[in-house]
Amino acid sequence: MTRSSPRAPTRVSTWRATWIVTRKELVATFRDKQTTLYTIIVPIALYPFLFWAILQGALFVQGRAEHTEVRLGVAATSDAHVPAGLPRALRHDASARASTASRPAPVGGSSSAESPTTNTTGGDAPARPSDDVTSTVTSEDDRLAVLHVTTRTEPLDDAGARAWLGESKDRVVPAHGGEGPPDAVLLLHGPREVGDAPDPGADLLYDSTASRSQIAKRRVAARLPAFADSLRAESAAAMGYEPSSLQPFLMEEGKDVAAEERGGGFFLSLILPMLLVIMTVIGAFYPAVDFTAGERERNTSETTALLPVPRRAVHQGKILAVCACAVLATSLNLLALGLSAEHLLHMLGEGRELKVVLPIGALLSIAPLALLFSFFVSAVLTGVAALARTFKEGQALLGPVQLVFIFPAMAGAIPGLELTPGLCFVPVVNVVLAFRSLLKGQSMPLEYTLTALSLLLFAVAAVWIALRVLSRESLVSSGKSMGLADLVSLLRSKGASR
Amino acid sequence: MSGPNDMAAPAIEARGLTKSYVDPQRGRVEALRGLDLTCRAGEIFGLLGPNGAGKTTTLRILATILAPTSGTARVAGVDVSADPLEARRRIGFLSGTTGLYPRLTARETLRYFGTLHGLGGDALEARIDELMDAFSMKEYADGRCEALSTGQKQKVSIARAVLHDPPVLILDEPTTGLDIIASGAMIEFIEAARGRGTCVLFSTHVLSEAERLCDRIGLIDHGRLLATGTLDELAAATGHEWLDDIFRTLTERVRATGDVRA
Q1: Which residues of A are less than 8 Å from B103 in CB distance?
Q2: Which residues of B touch A7 (CB under 8 A)?
Q3: Which helix (H) or strand (E) is A463 found in, with range?
Q4: pLDDT band at B2 (very low <50, low <70, confident <90, very high)
């Protein structure tokens, strides 16, 4: 502590000082739980948590659906009849059939159900009025995916079938078991020609706004094709034809012919640009508040003002540290997405498989734009947060600013919107559209260059404004937040970095 | 009270310092109105005055935290407006509100300031160890500042202020909020600094502290220095023995005559 200690012989350069400040801010900020949560934990854990939540939700919904007993009404128009064996085929599902193959026929007898004109009452279900046939099949082990089938013996036209289905809407509380109006109606009709396409021979009427009706529809859709195939095979054999020469019972649903990778790439191009913007903003949010309003609240702004380096270096260091947090959050999020996107899509998709491969080439092209964008976001958030007096006030100020970034980012999900030279100069929109185009593998050197230039301009302007705001005296000397008039006056004044 | 070296060049010299700003509630505020001040090396200079007199503004201008509206100030020969960076390198500043970075440890705080002062490697570590020994800080050197007691924080703050061995120490009410033991340690530190030839400029509300420590005292009110001198000189000029009486007399005299110089 004596004067004999040598005084520092050299000044630290501005850029070295910037780096030292950045390093210190990063060390300090990652010791803060909130920043660590939003910069590291959330980006990594977001997707696993999302998967877990979706899985739990899906399991719950699936469990509820499997345990839900639904009713199907089967009827035919006057020129058709209900094929023998159809009710029994519908009330079984594949697993139930496999598990009961070696067992006695389920209660409710199959033989009586063979005839569409014979009244048949299924096992547990109570007897129906004389004109209806109700059959119920449940697995012997449990009551999963139960479909009660009620066959109307008298002919019904389309209006009649709709009226029958409509009976279920009139009930406030759905009926249980096999009793009650159907949740869906399978109406069989004679052969008709509609345009060039042959009519499938059956209409499945259901109510898409009623979950029970949807469950009934899914169970019928899953079980009907197998019956249609067997019926076709039997009919063909009886007539001595090849089964393939007969028109199938029902038309097959259309299939998406897009390649799996293209589907995944399309998905990424829709969601990834928006995610990149959101994660950049979330990653920068807390450090920006912490380094500015948080510093004022902790009474350390005076300490910082005493650092023996140019103020510009200190403020640059803060912005750089905020930017590092934003980039870290975005990178971790991207990594987590790459590792888990396929599982997520698999869970979200219904039978459709999408292959998601993070396009490394596209990401490398995006990296410079993402970095410039991170600088832009970091400078804006840091500058705005510096107007606040307390951490809480900073959070309140940055809330709307977050939306200013996130709303335009939704442009990335607008179909048909492409990056044009004009849009290259619209902040946020330019970056999401550039991301999207690059992810779709489109080459657009002019737009890419214009976007990079405009981002650079925006970033420089934002850093300049942020430095002006951060360097104001009242940041240290006053306990007041800065109003809009003060800000305008500050930006118009001749500033000097001390 | 040891006497100052009258022949030495001023360690601090302020001429016609003014500082004004616009306050949303109070309108235009003139915090300093042409303040002149001279402090010499190896001298303890006490700045006394009521709240709002301009003490903190003066010290902050000298420490380059604020820029003066007009006037000049030199610290250790460096103009604080022309070369604030070099001025900061020659100043150790400490105040009751100069907080420590709560998430850094005491050692990290010293290392951070040392690195920015251009120190590094073994020289920096040796200097930190020297300060740790001098202020008995070793047992909490690696504890985060947010977990330290007030006295421990004060020691870390002092170590931070003298790490680069500045020729000028500026202390803004350094004993405010401290208990008797911590205040005593601060007073010892100030006396030791004078012993090393350091110029110490400090503001205080505690008149007994000023009477005990200061080689010279400056009385400030409404942004103007009313009088400077040793306690004996001020007593002779006003005919009072105690500082509070001296201050009251000077204030009344200024109000009556408009003369700001005793």
Answers
A1: 27-29, 31-32
A2: 89, 164-166
A3: helix A445-470
A4: very low
Q: What's CA A202's distance to the chain center, in Å?
A: 35
The neighbour count for residue A150, using CB atoms within 10 Å, is: 25
**Degrees to nearest 5, angle at CA B73 with B70 and B75:** 160
Closest residue in chain A to residue B87, using alpha carbons only: A308
Residues of B with CB below 8 A from A28's CB?
101, 103-104
* Minimal C-alpha gap between B249 and chain A (Å): 31
Q: What CATH superfamily is the domain B10-100+148-257? A: P-loop containing nucleotide triphosphate hydrolases (3.40.50.300)
Residues B180-219 have pLDDT tens digits of 888 888 889 899 999 999 999 999 878 888 888 999 999 9
Mutate one of A4, A5, A297, A312 to test the B interface: name it (highest B CB count within 10 A). A5
How many Å apart are CA B5 and CA A161, to the nearest integer? Answer: 112
Domains of chain A by residue range:
14-57+260-492, 67-245
With CB atoms and an 8 Å threshold, state whether B100 touches A303.
yes
**Hey, are the CB atoms on B65 and A303 less than 8 Å from each other?**
no
Handedness of CA B54, B59, B60, B64 (dihedral sign): positive
C-beta of residue B189 within 8 angstroms of C-beta of residue B167:
no
Smallest CA–CA distance from A309 into chain B, residue: B85
Interatomic CA distance for residues B171 and B178, integer angstroms? 14
Q: State the sign of the Cα–Cα–Cα–Cα dihedral A428, A432, A434, A435.
A: positive
Q: Is the pTM of this model over 0.80?
A: no
What is the C-alpha to C-alpha distance for residues A353 and B190, in angstroms, rounded to an integer?
Answer: 76
Query: Are B18 and B72 a contacting pair, CB within 8 Å?
Result: no
- Maximum Cα interatomic distance, chain B, rounded to a whole number of Å: 61
Nearest Cβ partner for B60 among A2, A28, A477 = A477
Measured CA to CA in angstroms, residue A360 lies from A269, A333, B168 at distances of 13, 15, 57
Q: Domain segments of chain B: what residues?
A: 10-100+148-257
For residues B247 and B84, what is the distance between their CA atoms, to the nearest angstrom?
33
Instruction: Name the residue in chain A with its Cα closest to that of B100.
Output: A300
pLDDT band at B117 (very low <50, low <70, confident <90, very high): very high
Q: B21 to chain A: which residues are within 8 Å by CB?
A: 473
From the candidates A14, A21, A306, A482, which should be mutated to test the interface with B, based on the most B CB atoms within 10 A?
A306
pLDDT digit string, tens, across residues B92-101: 999 877 689 9
Residue of B80, B90, B101, B128 to mutate when probing chain A, most A C-beta within 10 A:
B101
User: Closest by alpha carbon to A366, among A357, A374, A355?
Assistant: A374
CA distances from A478 to A99, A301, A468 (A): 79, 11, 16
